[in-house]
Amino acid sequence: MTAHEVNFDGLVGLTHHYAGLSFGNEASTRHRFQVSNPRLAVKQGLLKMKALADAGFLQAVIPPHERPFIPALRQLGFTGSDEQMLAKVARQAPRWLSSVSSASPMWVANAATVCPSADALDGKVHLTVANLNNKFHRALEAPVTEALLRAIFRDENQISVHSALPQVALVGADGAAHPTGLGGECGWA
């Protein structure tokens, strides 16, 4: 069997800001309310991706998700035009505005849990979208992440994309950021 490793990086979105939304994440808490520079962050990310590609690594780019995520605000009961709703949320619930504006989908290590084909009974790669249900701003990502993964990995004979598990603590999933696979032989191309 021949395996290929592809590095996926997410582009930083225009609404990137340091809101300290990830309780328990020391870097998030430490940088809370600092001024961010989304344009510089995008340039830095693209330079890193180019450096990896120039070094011979297979490199893919994941686009930012739509932010602010208006459907979540409507689901929470806010009404009016997008502009009216955003102004209302900014006044009444600034933390929610921060959450629906988070650029956190750039952290694609949290996008899905991967089961390599070498470990799967059917010999296919399996991607299960992470529900990220531990943080409101991250839990918003699952539907768009699933759509992106289905668009990228269309060959259902080799790769299966699975929807996120239900949004409950019992089956919380952080994607591929934490699992480690240990095994025997694997052929790298």
UniProtKB/TrEMBL annotation:
Tell me which EC number(s) this protein carries: 3.5.3.23
Instruction: List the Pfam families hit by this protein, alphabetically.
Output: AstB
Q: Which InterPro entries match?
A: AstB_sf, SuccinylArg_d-Hdrlase_AstB
**Which keywords, in A-to-Z order, does the entry hold?**
Arginine metabolism, Hydrolase
Q: Which GO terms describe its biological process?
A: arginine metabolic process
Any one Gene Ontology MF annotation carried by this entry is:
N-succinylarginine dihydrolase activity
Acetylation as a keyword? no
Gene3D superfamilies membership? Succinylarginine dihydrolase
Q: What is this protein called?
A: Succinylarginine dihydrolase
Q: Which organism is it from?
A: Salmonella enteritidis
